Amino acid sequence: MARQFILQTDDDPTLDQMQIPYAEELNAQQLDVVTFGTGASLVVAGAGTGKTRTLIYRVAYLVESGVAPEQIVLLTFTRRAANEMLNRASGLLDGRCRRVRGGTFHAFCLRILKQYASKLGFPNNFTMLDASDSADVIDVVKTSSGAESKEKRFPRKRTIQSIISSARNKGRSIQDVVEVSYPQFVDFTPQIETIFEAYETYKKVHGLMDYDDLLLYTLKLFSQEPGVLREVASQNRHVLVDEFQDTNRAQAKLVKAFSSVFGNVMAVGDDAQSIYRFRGADFQNILSFPDEYVGTQILRLEHNYRSTQHILDLANHLLDSAKRKYEKRLFTDRAEGDLPALVPAPDDRFESRFVSQMILQFRDQGIPLTEMAVLFRNGHNSYDLEVELNKKNIPFVKFGGLKLAEAAHVKDILAHLKVVENPQDAIAWNRILQLLEGVGPKTAGRIIDWVESNGGDQFILEERPFSASYIGSLRALFSTLRAVKKGEASCAEQLEIILEYYAPILRRVYYEDYPKREQDLEHFVGLSHTFTDRGNMLSSLALDPIELTAIDQQPEADDEPPLVLSTIHSAKGLEFKVVFLIHALDGVIPSGYSVGDAEAVEEELRLLYVAVTRAADQLFISYPMVQFRQFDGQYFANPSRFLANISSDLLEPCTLVEQTENVLPASDTIQQIADGSPNDAGTANLPF
DNA sequence: ACAAGCAGTTTTTTT
DNA sequence: AACTGCTTGT
Predict the structure, then answer these.
(1) Tell me, in Å, how far CA of A425 is from C1' of C4?
(2) Residue A78 CB closer than 7 angstroms to strand B?
């Protein structure tokens, strides 16, 4: 090892000269993290141990010790998390903290690539592909590369996209991924490999990048251009990484690269909360961190401030049953509170009525809706509940599930913007051309070829190698694109131009439900005022998608702050006083797709752990006993295998009973009734 | 030859 | 709700 010379910093303020009384506001472990000096550190932080709070104080501390805020990089999992942290840090100290750079790995890489794209042979106006755009590229190259087989079992475009993405994220070969995760398609491995190569070429030719490219091309840029690496890394005096257990190989390498000049990295994570294995995350990154950074200090946060002992007991029990043991035992000083409740409901409807009634009841007791959350494994698990909440006029926001930019009509208008931004973007062209009457895949392809070879990027139609049946619509399209491109119009104005052109198309294509979609688009235009330029807006929407339901809530801003509905994945890092976990069925959690793969089932168990540890005071786990399916009608569903055989000291089984006595005429309330003796191990009352 | 419409299947989780 | 395969219509 090279000799180290330590520079004395005697004029920097000491702890007691700082504005914030760190020693008073933090416990000893937290203070160690916050005041950590230079070099590499790994913070192993259990759920609810004040990890976010500690990071915020760390940022404030660094700023107070004289580090320029713009030299601090805070990498988080969502932009929501980054903004929240920086806002809180600003509240703690002052506005300087807002100048801290940060966001997701993808967003951070995008900013670098927008600067240096040309060094990689990409135009700097390259456009982003989301997962379904990527699948569309695959659809195109599948046919043109002749790899497609007429056999029935050829994988769908979405599946091929997942295979390719998985291989790239895990740094493995296509063959490996197919053999391990998609054994049913082993026979098609050569074709998938061909498609993969064609896919990579296609993106290069058309100036397109997918999510994985943002990470991988940034790494490529760094290895190809050491000067760029030095330039970027020398701006990062301190690198802080949240949720390190959910980073993949590429992200771990990026952290190394970002910190390669100063060597000051702090990675914070919890191996027990790793829930993104499916997209290449590897919690081994935590375990190998000390090997990667010689001299790493390992710091721990173990004191849970969030949950009652009962909730922690259940959480600890779940981890105990994991095959791979996590050396973690959370403890708290908090009073015991109520036992977590396991509530079987006869069916979906009962479950929804139960949850919504309990929510109203807690609200009457003074708990604001925002302090409560309903969590579920899949985005669609909450459909029935959403109907019930609407009926009862309970406002809610939903995180996870369909995103605004993923809705077909929004993708349509965004595709018009993309074409103006990057006329090479054949996928966007394809989308907007097929909206024209009389234009299908073949004709769209021919027009795209024409655009590429005839400078159609000026959107001028002179000759007409086109059929009369659609030349009119094509003219209208081109003149719209010219109008969008020409003016110095704002994003919102550009969208208005497109919308005016698109309105009749919307009505024709989505004749069944266009009013709803029109509303979405209007909200979307309103929202676009926050963006300054087109390129920025397009990439922001791809990287930090806005939830579709978040938009419905906007107009009535002074309404009661809403209840949170969220997939467990999207609830990461959040906490609530009251948590309902619904649809806790076997086949839902663990997902039916995971059974058979022990590692995948383990991840589902961690997912349940994450859900349970979101709760501070009250936890209700419910499931419908009967499920409906399209063809075989009703069938009985089993509760999650993770909840079977849990002692009633940890998770209290409860029953739901329909109210029989009519206290109120139109009462359809569900009444919780003690079944048998009060201390009977089998059942219990819920506090009505 | 190609588009459009219909019927039947298939759907995790996210940047 | 979206994708695939099939049939019909231009």
Answers:
(1) 26
(2) yes
CA distance A182 to A194: 17
C-alpha span between A71 and A217 (Å, rounded): 23
CB-strand contact A152/C, under 7 Å: yes
Q: pLDDT tens digits for A118-166?
A: 999 999 889 999 988 999 999 888 877 766 666 667 888 899 999 999 9
Which residues pair with residue A101 across a beta bridge? A73
pLDDT of residue A73: 95
Residue A512, nucleotide of least CA–C1' distance: C1
Annotate A469-518 with DSSP letters as a single string: HHHHHHHHHHHHHHHHHHS---HHHHHHHHHHHHHHHHHHHTTTTHHHHH
Whether A608 contacts A589, CB under 8 Å: yes
In the complex, which nucleotide's C1' lies nearest to the CA atom of residue A275?
B13
**What is the Cα–Cα distance from A290 to A504, expressed in whole angstroms?**
60
> Judging by beta carbons within 10 Å of its beta carbon (0-12, 13-18, 19+), is residue A6 exposed, middle or buried?
exposed
Strand pairing category for A396-399 and A563-567 = parallel
Q: Which nucleotides of strand B lie under 7 Å from a protein CB?
A: 1-4, 9-15
- pLDDT 10s digits, A523-539: 888 888 888 889 888 88
pLDDT over 90 for what percent of chain A? 47
Report how far residue A285's alpha carbon sits from residue A170's, in angstroms, rounded to the nearest whole number.
12
Q: Given the structure tokens 């990527």, which residue do they identify?
A: A134
Report the pLDDT value the prediction gives residue A460, as an integer from 0 to 100.
Answer: 73
Pairing relationship of beta strands A265-269 and A101-103 according to DSSP bridges = unpaired
Please state whether strand B lies within 7 Å of residue A606 at its CB atom: no
pLDDT at A203 over 90: yes
Give the helix/strand (H/E) hosting A652. Answer: strand A652-653
Structure confidence at residue A64 as a pLDDT band (50, 70, 90): very high
Asked if pLDDT for residue A672 goes beyond 60, the answer is no
User: Distance from residue A379 (CA) to nucleotide B10 (C1'), in Å?
Assistant: 16
Query: What does the block give as tokens for A585?
Result: 């069925």
Question: Could you give phi then psi for residue A587, rounded to 5 degrees?
Answer: 100, -20
| Residue with token string 């995008």 | A110
* Integer angstrom CA distances of residue A591 from A139, A313, A501, A586: 28, 24, 43, 7
Check whether A325 has a pLDDT greater than 70.
Answer: no
Residue A630 structure tokens: 């399209």
